[in-house]
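Sample pair:
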Amino acid sequence: MSETGNRPLDVLEDSVGTAVTVTLKGGQEYTGVLVGYDQHMNLVVEADEDITIIRGDNVVSIQP
């Protein structure tokens, strides 16, 4: 984990390349490998050969 480790972007940085489950406001869940993110917490999740781009303002939680 990074030195600060408490800021959301630090947690995302530490999670790149690992499997995560992303829960959205509407209750939908996406599970896959976190392959990227940006400063707005938009996420790129890859499951099998499918790539999903998730808008950050829809994210409720990200779990390992």
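Residues 8-15 form the longest helix (8 residues).
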